[in-house]
Design a protein that fits this description.
Oligomer: single chain
Order of helices and strands: HHHHHHHH
Helix content: 55-70%
Number of strands: 0
Strand content: under 5%
Shape: elongated
């Protein structure tokens, strides 16, 4: 199979998948079954998947909107600590905040611009979160499985971005 044929096949497959209405959990299960069916189960080691995927489900709606907070004098960092505490350090990124509460995101960006950093407040970008997940995954296996692990991480990143983009487009 040459590259144009492969590309066309992947596009058709992606189109078919995107037409299915699945929850993120169903999508993850689908990709796992697909990997097993394609004899790629060695890339789907449970301990590696758990290191990245076992996180609390991220909110689909903002628990509280920054502009509507009861105490208008509350600054952005204390607001984020209070409202998003269950998800901080668990995969919640700045991009998620921008999707849920754009005004809070702008307030956070302004805080970074005017104060230089957020001190000990740990609030990663998507790239930083992926790097953290990568580092966590690197703790599994020995040096001989590094290439296998790199392939698995690439697959996880693709799944993450697919799920993220489907969330933005209003899909399930």
């Amino acid at each position: 199979m040459n590259m144009p044929e492969t590309t066309a096949l992947v596009k058709r497959f992606a189109k078919e998948i995107s037409s299915l209405e699945m929850t993120p959990e169903e999508q993850a299960a689908f990709y796992r079954m697909l990997g097993e069916r394609l004899n790629l189960s060695h890339h789907l080691r449970p301990e590696c998947m758990a290191a990245v995927m076992d996180k609390p489900e991220l909110p689909e709606a903002a628990p509280e909107i920054f502009a509507g907070r009861a105490d208008a004098s509350e600054k952005i960092i204390p607001f984020l600590r209070r409202v998003y505490a269950p998800w901080l350090g668990q995969g919640f990124t700045r991009n998620h905040l921008n999707t849920l509460d754009p005004q809070a995101y702008v307030a956070f960006k302004n805080h970074l611009y005017y104060h230089g950093d957020a001190g000990d407040f740990d609030f990663p970008t998507i790239d930083e979160q992926i790097n953290r997940d990568f580092t966590r995954l690197m703790d599994f296996g020995d040096e001989s499985s590094k290439q296998e692990l790199d392939s698995e991480i690439t697959a996880l990143r693709r799944i993450y971005h697919l799920l993220d983009s489907r969330g933005k487009s209003g899909g399930s």
